[in-house]
Amino acid sequence: MLLEGATEDDIGVQRSVDEDHCRGEESKTVVKRAQNGDVAAFEYLVTQHYRFIYKTAFRWLGDQTDAEDVTQTICMRLAKILSSFDGRASFTSWLYRVTLNAVRDLQRSKVRAERRAAELSLTAQEETSGGQEDAVHVADIWKQVRQLPDKQRDAVLLVYGEEMSHADAAQIMQCKEVTVSWHIHNARKALKGRL
């Protein structure tokens, strides 16, 4: 997808970007081009990772509207924060951390808003959606997971929600693999008491 009024150079860049992606060099080549101001490369990054950002945000938040808000916020901020990507980790791992930080920012702002609402004695009703009993049970489990302490929640969502290995989760959480296992163990104990 090219911007309206794209030049032959832009088309060449797009072809080159597509070829790089096919060779698995996206993380280094396309990101570097986007960091250097290449609009087509930046647009390609956003297009290719939009669904990944949304799915990650939704898994953590459990709310479509909030996940869309986080995704849009990241896409708008990406041009500014892309310069902080240094290539030590994969682009996807870096983007995962950016997404988790945005999720936490939204969660903190919601907690502050809820406190203000409570102070003003306002009550809010939660919407519940109908569906099959299993779907409701799974939704209840994820709701309980989202209420775990941050490290436990992150470990469970990465390993079970995103189906990552403990090693991959450890890289994203910036800890050792055994620490991820420990957080999952503690989360299981906590969830047994809640479910």
From TrEMBL:
InterPro entries in the record: RNA_pol_sigma-70-like (IPR039425), RNA_pol_sigma-70_dom (IPR014284), RNA_pol_sigma70_r2 (IPR007627), RNA_pol_sigma70_r4_t2 (IPR013249), RNA_pol_sigma_r2 (IPR013325), RNA_pol_sigma_r3/r4-like (IPR013324), WH-like_DNA-bd_sf (IPR036388)
Keywords recorded for this protein, A-Z: DNA-binding, Plasmid, Sigma factor, Transcription, Transcription regulation
Domain RNA polymerase sigma-70 region: 45-112
One Pfam family named in its UniProt record: Sigma70_r4_2
Annotated ranges, domain RNA polymerase sigma factor 70 region 4 type: 141-191
Database matches in PANTHER family: RNA POLYMERASE ECF-TYPE SIGMA FACTO, RNA POLYMERASE SIGMA FACTOR HI_1459-RELATED
NCBIfam families named among the record's database cross-references: sigma70-ECF (TIGR02937)
Family: Belongs to the sigma-70 factor family. ECF subfamily.
Protein name: Sigma-70 family RNA polymerase sigma factor
Protein's organism: Shinella sedimenti
